[in-house]
Every structure is written in structure tokens, then in C-alpha cells.
Amino acid sequence: MAFEGCKKVWYNGKFIDFDNAKVHVLSHALHYGTSIFEGERCYKSKNGSVIFRIDEHSQRLKNSCKIYRMDIPYSVEEISKAKINCIKENKLEEAYIRPLVIRGFHSLGVNPMECPIDMYIAVWKWGKYLGEEALEQGVDVKVATWSRFAPNTFPALAKCGANYMNSQLIKMEAILDGYVEGIALDTTGYVSEGSGENLFVVMDDVLYTPPLGASVLPGITRDSIIKLAKDLGHDVVEQIIPREMLYIADEVFFTGTAAEITPIRSIDKIKIGEGKRGPVAEKLQKEFFDIVEGKKEDRHGWLTFVK
Length: 307
What we know:
- By secondary structure, this protein is an alpha+beta fold.
- Helix content is 27%, strand content 28%.
- It is built from 8 helices and 17 strands.
- Strand 15 (260-267) and strand 16 (270-271) form a beta hairpin.
């Protein structure tokens, strides 16, 4: 099964069988993209299963819902507890976690206000998003012909299903052109992010990343890497990044819950640095995985034990 290990799904406060986790074909979310979601990871550490920054993800889910006027009757603490219970219910030691809030079945039309709001949480085993070897060897990417959405069109700070139609265009174009992933520019022509990842550029040991105003999602892994880089003595600068800066960088890498820290070895067939994982990305990977695997102290309080 593609969703290995997912036997029970949390639905509006109770567990239902995986095969019964269905929505009506006339649900509002299917027609108008009114869905909010998160992506999180539960890691198997030497001290037990841990969920990475669980409350921050729960809060971002609440924030995204607020932007789209979707009121859910659960607090951050209740959402986080439901995710823990879902891991336990499915007896998983490590998992990808997908909370989902949708406007469900009632009526169709652009006005969604009468449609019920339903919440689901599913968990399953999911490996490295861009491939097991990508963390070490890096990936080949291209700058997409599709731009990220303009300010005051779609709210980039919300993790909304509708936004990911743009991501799909970026991703499909990259794959069909022979690349693993695409990098989108914003509507002013500056670097934004990947189809589902934030982006960092390394030059002279300084890390640069686009600001939130460049139509990027406020990534929780992005925030974590900023903190870890500073811990390791690097300066981190949030600024607009011109496209050509990608080509002359010492290193470029993606960050995200699914991608974790994935180096980029080439962009538009131009080799980045040495054409493989660079020392900064390698150092950040080690620090990140040592923390989530329990080999180093959880000095930022990011880990929540399932049991």
C-alpha cells in the first residue's frame, strides 16, 4: 500500500478505518481548493519516537485556517495530542503526519460559509521525499517558467491546497524536462522557493534565504535551519536573492519537512560549487539528524515524545 502503516485516520475527534476516510464528491474542497494542511515527521530516536516541532505545526495549521476564515474547534494542544494519539493508534515508530482541514459537503458556489469544516489526521511511513541518495549526492533542478503567486492574490503564509496547483505546475515541468525539482521566482523576478521546499544559498560561509515577502511559506524546517546555522557560528541573512546568485553560490540547498536538508548539485545544468553536497549543508544535516535521533541534546525544545 502506498500509505504503508496507515490503518486508522483521526476524523473530527474519533478514529475511523483507512478505507472509510472518504469525502463526498460535491465537497467544497474538491471544487474550490478550500483545504488547509500540514506536513510533519515523527522520527525514531534512540530514546523513543519523537515528533519534530509538533506545536509549531499545529499553530501554523490554526493560522492558515484563520486566514481563510475556517474556524476549527480545537486548540493547539488538542491538535498536537490528536497527532500523538494517531501515531499510537497506528503503532508506528516513525511516520509522516498529515493533518487536513477541509470545507466539506453542503452546497456549491464560491461562497463557502455554509459548508461544514472537517478535520482529518493521517500518518504513514514515508521515506526521503527527493530520494534516499539525494541527501548526500544532491539533486539537479531548474528555474521554473512558472512564477510564484503575486502578493495580494493568494496568501503565501497559508498552507492551503489551492496554492499547490502552482506547485504542481513547477514540479511537473521540472520532471518532464529531466530534473528532480524546480525553483520558482516571485513576480518581481527574484528567487522564491521550490515547489514544496524553502531554499538557502551559501556564499563565503554566510547563509542567504528569501524573506517571507518573496511569496514563501514560513517553513518550520527553514526556521530550524536558521537557528542551527547561527548555533554553528554562521551569519544568516534574509534578503531578496537575484536568480544569477544561484549559479555562483558555493552551495544551494532545499529545506522542508519532507525534503529535510537536500543539497542542490546543479541548477539549469550549471554546476553549483563542487557539484555535490557542500560542507555547510553536510554540517547542518549532521546537527539536525543528531538532534532528532537523540544523539545530541534537544537544546531548542523541538522534540515531543510519543510515549
